[in-house]
Amino acid sequence: MIYKKHIFICTNQRPEGARVSCGEEHGSALTAEFKKLMKEKGLTVGMRAQRTGCCELCEYGPIVVVYPEGVFYGKVQLSDVNEIISEHLQNDRPVDRLLIPKLS
Amino acid sequence: MIYKKHIFICTNQRPEGARVSCGEEHGSALTAEFKKLMKEKGLTVGMRAQRTGCCELCEYGPIVVVYPEGVFYGKVQLSDVNEIISEHLQNDRPVDRLLIPKLS
C-alpha cells in the first residue's frame, strides 16, 4: 500500500438541468485546497489527494473519500478541508459531522 | 465502507511531449471495460470502477488501483481486465504479474 491516506475528491460535472453533481469547479477547488494545506503541513509523503469521477452518491455531494479506511464525506465545503486534514489525516479521527449518514 | 471493492482507473492525459501518461483514451477504455465485464458478471452491488486523476506513478501507467486493500496495478491493458476481475475482485487473489514492482 503506497499511500497511508489516499484522498479522492469527486469533480464530476453533470449537464445543466440534470440531477445535482459535485461539480468540476467545486471539486477542483477542494482538490487544490487539500493539496495546498497538506503541503503546508508537510503531509506530502505517504498521502495524496486527487480528483476522481462520480462515486454514485450525488445527492450527498460534494463527495470526498479517504482510503484505505473507506470513509465517505458528503457536502464538503472548502472551509471543511482543514478540519478533515487535522482531525482525520493527521490524527485518525474521522470528522463525524461530515460523514454520509446512510454509510455511517 | 460502502464498496467492498472500489476500483480507480487513471485517465490522466499529459500534454504531447511531456512524460508518459496513462492517457484519457486508454483510461476511459479500461474504465468502460471494467464496467461492462463487472455488469456481465453481476458485480454491480458493493463494487464500483471509476476514472480518477494522476496517482503519481506515471512510469508504470496505465495504472489501476483497488481499494480498500490498496493494490496498485501497472501497465494494465484491456486484455488484463477480465483477469483482474475474475481473480482479484471475485476471488481476492491479486494478479501478481501486474503488481507494480516497487510497491509489492
TrEMBL record, chains A, B:
Gene3D superfamilies: Glutaredoxin. It comes from the Bacteria. This is (2Fe-2S) ferredoxin. It comes from Daejeonella lutea. CDD domains: TRX_Fd_family (cd02980).
